[in-house]
Amino acid sequence: VQLQASGGGLVQAGGSLRLSCAASARISSSYVMAWFRQAPGKEREFVVGIRWSGGSPSYADSVKGRFTISRDRVQNTVSLQMNSLKPEDTAVYYCAAGPSLINSDYPRASRYSYWGQGTQVTVSS
Questions:
Q1: How confident is the model at residue 76 (pLDDT cuts 50, 70, 90)?
Q2: Residue from 19, 38, 29, 25 nearest 101 by CA
Q3: How far apart are the first and last CA of the chain?
Q4: Residue 100: which pLDDT band, with cuts at 50, 70 and 90?
Q5: What span, in angstroms and rounded, lies between the C-alpha atoms of 62 and 89?
Q6: Coil, helix or strand at residue 110
Q7: DSSP 8-state class, residue 121
Q8: How far apart are CA 57 and CA 76, in angstroms?
Q9: Contact 95/33 with Cβ under 8 angstroms?
Q10: Strands 17-23 and 77-82
Q11: pLDDT per residue over 28-62, tens digit each?
């Protein structure tokens, strides 16, 4: 499966962006789709994950109430609506797909098999 992330850009603090991740093939219901981000000089950080078959998403505390993940099982896409953006949200955002993850594994980047190429999000103050 190849993942293609898009939708990044430059936005002022308090603004919104919507990221999309398109999969090249049908995603198995056992997979978890997630977004991670990596700021310069920092480790890759978990943002949110959702099981492809359904269920409640798991968000990092830093984005709860501001970011919303959604999936379209017909289009094979996962989107990330980001509202009330802050300068500290500036990073390259990656989508990822991993098979049969349990909830506690969602934040572990090493558990994901497939990664998109990343899209830059820059929030100016």
A1: very high
A2: 29
A3: 37
A4: confident
A5: 9
A6: helix
A7: E
A8: 17
A9: yes
A10: antiparallel
A11: 999 999 999 999 999 999 999 999 998 899 999 99
